[in-house]
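Input structure tokens:
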């Protein structure tokens, strides 16, 4: 178990209903499995699965970048976003929801507002 998984499991020992930090929309940390977590976004959404291995790469992605947008469209040559990092692994844009979970687990600090921005909390 890596540090991201350890931190998320410590903060969320069981599935939990959450609310986005900016517009207070509900979503669910639906499942904390052996290989992945699942999020339910909205009331009828199918779960979106994100593997722990992908989550463990987020600190390396964020390291030395300062404030990074959690979500947004990737523009070639533009600033990186968490959604851009996740794109090869996740079909949905879940950056803003995942940023909230990472913040609750003390992995990142958030700047609430639009856009939601995040910065790695260094140990």
């Amino acid at each position: 178990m890596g540090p991201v998984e350890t931190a998320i499991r410590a903060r969320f020992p069981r599935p939990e209903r959450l609310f986005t930090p900016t517009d207070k929309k509900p979503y669910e940390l639906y499942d904390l499995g052996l290989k992945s977590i699942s999020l339910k976004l909205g009331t009828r959404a199918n779960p979106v699965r994100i593997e722990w291995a992908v989550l463990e790469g987020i600190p390396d992605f964020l390291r030395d970048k300062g404030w990074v947008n959690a979500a947004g469209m990737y523009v070639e040559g533009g600033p990186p976003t968490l959604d851009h990092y996740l794109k090869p692994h996740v079909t949905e844009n879940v950056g803003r929801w995942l940023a909230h979970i990472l913040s609750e687990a003390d992995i990142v600090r958030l700047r609430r507002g639009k856009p939601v921005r995040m910065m790695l909390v260094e140990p």
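Residues 16 and 49 are 15 Å apart (CA to CA). The chain has a mean pLDDT of 89.
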